[in-house]
């Protein structure tokens, strides 16, 4: 065969390879690979039959047969660079690096880290490095604007979609999302069942971050039915899932992973031991001051400091807030029965320091980014140790000493039983949790040791950070340092230890 004939045959083979590669569904790739192998052998035998143009075309066809290279995984060093440049932090806090590394590597992860440990950074930082859009599921509609504003100031392209938006604004944000202009999108679980879900249709997501993930578990302390509908998100978007919470027992952690369809998730658990929180419990009743009067004394002894008072019912919240305000305290009520505009006003005033103390139901607190809350008072016993830990965790996020005073009685247990609802399994769980909470308040021993033990962490007695270890009852009068609350009946406080760090039992404050 003359040279021209050989060239024509090779041209026909090249055309056949191109046709095979264009076959629907990739069905011709095997044929194309076989023809290409034959041409390679022919080239090695007679390279002169292949013009430079033919060689270039064959190289291009061979490239089409290779599987696409996986995108490069951002390194932890790259994450540290973004941490410094975008967020202004020198290095990660404990637990953050392990979570970020897992997320960047495409692995599902559950992060159980106490309030103030910097959970939000574990999805905000990957949002920049992964590209595309990171979806953050959060129950905190009232706080989404603050979170988006903070991220925008840091340099992240962030937005939110929720029921507070006007139709035209929502359309503009959805359009920006589809143009690939949004790195970080916040949405509530309820929104995914409606308009937000349709806006995300057909959109590829880089990461699914579920904040306050304990809300998905029936065994958690704040179950929300809408969270159950997140179960199919991983399959729907094909993205890794990061679940974050401040409070989860082993049982709740397993339920979170199962409900979200996680595959061999990495579990990262931070330490729950926070000895800057000074824990006290005071049994209501007897011949001491009423809880209302005692709360007034506690608050007045801490003037110009920020604090939260938690109560079980909206009626009690309104009553205590009015009582404090009537005695000259800058106090405000916060509960789910208030109009959204009023809740936002209280929240903003508290963040700015215009309100000293917020009296609230559990509707207040999740996601509050205020580092200098100096005290948390429970006028009524919380319904579980998980709820108690999350609520006291809003104090002292700056690491400074903060008082946590719990008022409790068996009447609180009875009230919680009445609030348990008709679901017998759920009610039985609530009864177990409330009784465990009562035992924590009423029995002797180190509170920190027992509290972290509830979450599976082993620690010895704190030494000087709770009334069970000899910490003096909290001062309740600014006029005389001797007025203080008494410990529960049957428990006599031991003499307070003198710390080698300076003042008894206190970490010296910086000058």
Keyword list:
511 residues; Rossmann fold; 3 domains; seven-stranded parallel sheet; six-stranded parallel sheet; elongated; disordered C terminus
What does this structure look like?
42% of the residues lie in helices and 13% in strands. It contains 20 helices and 13 strands. The strands form 2 sheets. A 7-stranded parallel sheet has the order 3-4-2-5-6-1-7, sandwiched between helices. A 6-stranded parallel sheet has the order 8-13-12-9-11-10, with helices on both faces. Strand 10, helix 16 and strand 11 form a beta-alpha-beta unit. The N and C termini lie far apart (95 Å).
Task: Tell me the distance between the termini.
Answer: 95 Å
Q: Which of globular, elongated, flat, extended, rod-shaped describes the shape?
A: elongated
The name of the CATH superfamily of the largest domain reads P-loop containing nucleotide triphosphate hydrolases
Share of helical residues: 40-55%
| Overall mean pLDDT | 82
Biggest sheet layout: 7 strands, parallel
* Secondary structure tally, helices: 20
- Please state how the strands of the largest beta sheet are arranged side by side: 3-4-2-5-6-1-7
Structural Rg: 30 Å
- Oligomeric nature of the chains: single chain
The helix/strand class is alpha/beta
CATH topology of the largest domain: Rossmann fold
Number of domains: 3
Q: Can you count the beta strands?
A: 13
Q: Tell me, what is the CATH class of the largest domain? A: Alpha Beta
CATH-level-2 architecture of the largest domain: 3-Layer(aba) Sandwich
